[in-house]
């Protein structure tokens, strides 16, 4: 896994005649709520950071990191015969709908990591790997809500699982686009306002079928609790 190197001013030039968009060092520092925790890998920390950048300025994320992700993805799949079916076209309905969602996202409350929740995320990712499964249920049949409620009773909670990527930006953008998922459940978890999610656990593990899997758990905690995580 690679470590993200953050410049003091991150500048991305946009295509299609759009003006330059910038991410400041202050925005990166604000978003990087997992920077100093010892229980997350660099890529796991960056998952939290990228989700927070989306919540700081959704439209800017769309025209910078997401734009880069799509360009890189389309370049990778160009070698396949069914490239036109695999590529993410600019008229893709999920791509189009995402802009509408992200235009309304500005300065939302940030996500903060939690060690106990992260342990649950990592344990489930390890279970997916060990038993070669791809479900929110544990290999013993335990539902994800029951699995989390043992340690976070009576809390709003949800879970995202991504397969195929180990790189943080790929994981976040893949879940944010949510192509092929009509409910847009993964996207809505990242952009959540309704459930007041503010606490996250993250685990990236190998997977026999999909090479990699990533589990992200979301929980709503009292404000004083999240403030103590800073």
UniProtKB/TrEMBL annotation:
What protein am I looking at?
A: CAP domain-containing protein
SUPFAM superfamilies the record matches:
PR-1-like
Query: Does the record bear Plastid in its keywords?
Result: no
Q: Which organism is it from?
A: Pedobacter agri
Does this UniProt record's set of keywords contain Signal?
yes
Q: Do you know which Gene3D superfamilies this protein is assigned to?
A: CAP (3.40.33.10)
Q: Recite the UniProt keywords alphabetically.
A: Signal
Pfam families linked to this entry: CAP (PF00188)
Which segments constitute the SCP domain?
Answer: 90-210
Residues spanning the signal sequence: 1-20
Q: Which CDD domains does this entry report, sorted A to Z?
A: CAP_bacterial
